[in-house]
Write a structure and sequence with these properties.
Layout: E1 6-8, H1 14-29, H2 35-41, H3 44-60, E2 66-68, H4 73-80, E3 86-91, H5 96-102, E4 106-113, E5 116-123
Antiparallel strand pairs: 1-2, 3-5, 4-5
Keywords: Transferase
GO molecular function, one term: transferase activity
Organism: Deinococcus proteolyticus (strain ATCC 35074 / DSM 20540 / JCM 6276 / NBRC 101906 / NCIMB 13154 / VKM Ac-1939 / CCM 2703 / MRP)
Length: 126
């Protein structure tokens, strides 16, 4: 396997993060969300909005965001930098929600944005 690295994201990472974010929605929510809604949530305009949003989050350092080349390795990086807690938001309809729970996450709140119910998944101790 090629080497990987994990680092804190910087504003220049916003385009790549937005592209992955948009593509993951297309792949995960096809068949789970209405086709028209998913199309508008993953088109080029949506990707551009996500890029702007990620750029703002990263510029203002509102959250610690990491980019990683290997799944689940981010937990080790959070621990290595003194962190002991991790959280993410997932759509209520996302089948991966159950997988996160099997990995030790718990549901810790929800929010509704338009038609979408999002669930906050939290690992209290890494």
């Amino acid at each position: 396997m090629p080497p990987f690295s994990i680092r804190r994201a910087i504003p220049a990472d916003a385009p790549a993060i937005a592209a992955v974010h948009t593509q993951s929605w297309r792949e995960t929510y096809t068949g789970l969300l209405p086709t028209d809604f998913l199309a508008s949530a993953t088109d080029e305009q949506a990707r551009e909005r996500r890029e702007q949003s990620w750029r703002a989050v990263l510029t203002e350092q509102r959250e610690a965001v990491f980019v990683a080349a290997q799944e689940q390795a981010v937990m080790a990086q959070v621990r290595a930098t003194g962190g002991n807690r991790l959280a993410l938001w997932v759509l209520g309809a996302n089948p991966a929600r159950r997988w996160y729970a099997t990995q030790g996450a718990r549901e810790a709140g929800q929010k509704v944005e338009g038609e979408l119910l999002e669930i906050r998944m939290v690992w209290d101790r890494l």
